[in-house]
Amino acid sequence: MAVDPLIEMRDVNKHYGKLHVLKDINLTVGRGEVVVVIGPSGSGKSTLCRAINRLEPVESGTILLDGHPLPDEGRELAKLRAEVGMVFQSFNLFAHKTVLANVSLAPVKVRKRSREEADRRSRELLERVGLLAHADKYPAQLSGGQQQRVAIARALAMEPKALLFDEPTSALDPEMINEVLEVMQQLARDGMTMVVVTHEMGFARSAANRVVFMADGRIVEDRAPEEFFTAPRSERAKDFLSKIL
Ligand code: ADP
Ligand code: MG
Predict the structure, then answer these.
(1) Which H or E run includes 187?
(2) How far is 16 from 1, CA to CA, in rounded Å?
(3) Are 52 and 63 in contact (CB under 8 A)?
(4) The model's pTM
(5) Which residues does the UniProt record annotate as the domain ABC transporter (predicted)?
(6) Do the beta carbons of residue 63 and residue 54 sit within 8 Å?
(7) Could you tell which of 46, 50, 58 is best to mutate to test the pocket of ligand 1, judged by most ligand atoms within 8 Å of the CB?
(8) Coil, helix or strand for 213?
């Protein structure tokens, strides 16, 4: 299916104490693919996301980024990790830095870009997420939806090969959800490789190449959105969809 794999998880397992939270996870995300991960609360979606860039160590299995196995630690891990951006439910912007400084910080510190180059590129990214006019404001002066769009620009500033989103709109007021989803839709159209944990089924239907349904730490279904939504195979997925749709 995925001819050019960018993210590969092979037989990945993880426990928290006695809780088996990732069970024999096999997942391949192709370059340019958008994979939406859905499932009940506690099914392991966040842990899966965090495992992809080793924010969570795993006990067994292999995770490859662009063909390179993720090591457990060290400089090589830091390098590979920087190639996968993450956007969380809570935006985690630096409150005492301007919007522009939030976006250009990591490129200067980690990628060793010059201040001028980083600022120029950050302005381009802020324009892309519709926030150039707010470059000199502080996060608290922005709405939640705007802050999340800054967080997306900040992740893009590292020029990642892939972006992971963990419920990026769950903390937002309803009227702000669409402005964030629209930015994500545009990224998808531009060919960004994305793994998106979300309850936004409209986004899944319109932007995802595949839907991965998780339950109890397992990937239960991994299929095209139209197939999944119209004819889920598992009882778990049928039950889940009947509750949210
Ligand atoms: P989801 O994102 O699908 O809601 P999570 O990946 O956050 O699921 O959590 C999966 C399971 O692991 C849940 O039962 C949760 O309570 C548990 N869990 C998550 N993080 C930790 C942790 N740091 N320590 C112990 N248990 C955890
Ligand atoms: Mg979660």
Answers:
(1) helix 174-189
(2) 32
(3) yes
(4) 0.95
(5) 7-241
(6) yes
(7) 46
(8) strand
77 and 71 in contact (C-beta within 8 Å)? Answer: yes
> Would you mind telling me the total number of residues written for the chain in this entry?
245
Task: Dig out the tokens for 237 from the structure.
Answer: 């997925």
Q: What are phi and psi of 64, to 5 degrees?
A: -120, 135
Nearest to 169 by CA among 190, 188, 185: 185
Closest ligand, as measured to the CA of 41: 1
* pLDDT single digits (tens) 8-20: 999 999 999 999 9
Q: Which residues contact 177 (CB under 8 A, 6 or more apart)?
A: 145, 169, 200
The interface predicted TM-score of the complex, written ipTM, equals: 0.98
Q: For residue 161, what are the contacts with CB-CB under 8 A and spacing of at least 6?
A: 6, 31, 65, 66, 83, 84, 193
Q: Does the pLDDT at position 87 exceed 90?
A: yes
Amino acid letter for position 130: G
CA of 150 to the centre of ligand 1 (A): 27
Q: What is the pLDDT of residues 134-193, one digit of tens each?
A: 999 999 999 999 999 999 999 999 999 999 999 999 999 999 999 999 999 999 999 999
**Inter-residue contact 22 to 14 (CB < 8 Å):** yes
Task: Quote the CA–CA distance of 169 and 199 in Å, as a whole number.
Answer: 9
Ligand 1 pocket check for 46: Cβ under 6 Å: yes
Cβ atoms 62, 26 nearer than 8 A: no
Query: CB–CB of 171/121 below 8 Å?
Result: no
